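It is worth pausing here to work through a concrete case rather than discussing structure prediction in the abstract. The textbook approach is simple: state the sequence, then state the predicted structure, then interpret. We follow exactly that order.
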Amino acid sequence: MTVARLPGGESERTRGERPPGCDSGSLLMRRASVSLCDLGWVPEGDTIHHAAARIRAVLETRVPEEILTPHPRHHFERWPQRLAGRAVRAVDTHGKHLFLRFDGGMTLHSHLRMTGAWGVYREGERWRRAHHRAWLVLRCGDWEVVEFDGPVLELVNDAHTRFDPRLTALGQDVLGESFNMETFLARLRKDDPRRPIGDALLNQRTVAGIGNVWKSECCFAARIDPWRALDEVRDEEALALVAFARRHMPISAREGPRARPRSVYKRAGQPCIRCGTSIRRRDQGENNRVTYWCPGCQR
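Step two, the predicted structure:
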């Protein structure tokens, strides 16, 4: 098994080092050592975009000097040998999926689900998760890019990413520059008309990148009860939900998940900032995904 060297303690923070491509004012790398889920942030489209930007600053156009796969499940896949000498030509995302694309048509595909995290650390800096939880380590210059607890982590060829039904069936990336509202609405209307709108927003075939946090915050912002059935949601209301996400998710994608709105999420029992009613929390849908809402002003 390929074994990762344990980080040897806290890094020197007085040197002001930054990975290539990051300017001195970049909030991105001031938070470079923070893993996505270590502070309780759920991986959604904005956190994946944020992680990709941090990883891109360290790896894009460069050849990793060392690639380690500490997790036993990848022992026989020989990723270090297969990727040796290959530059990372691109780091991109779609919804909650992240892709590290290497020269030679090879791609590392990651999906964190609810438990995984990407971290970017200076060499020697203490990782925020235990070393045995690392599935992938890429070392480049003075930096280490680490993927922890990755439920989906695979090395595939580029053609696979173009034809994999898990990916081709995805809806538009909610953060995509070419996002089309009419296409979103058409996909939404193909869903079960009795499905609650809060649960429908989590359907990645309809729109990719929205999870529990943004589902709850979008419904609150639009004053829509997340339990209301799809056929009772007007087109303009559905569009308002996604419009809120597209206005606010780019901010947390750029600055990190601390910039997310927190009007209802994880505020169960606290007064609504709009009407004073106690925020409620309940699991929703077949997968029991947590939902927060205000029964006083969301109708």
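Step three, interpretation. Residues 1-34 have pLDDT under 50 and may be disordered. The longest strand covers residues 88-94.
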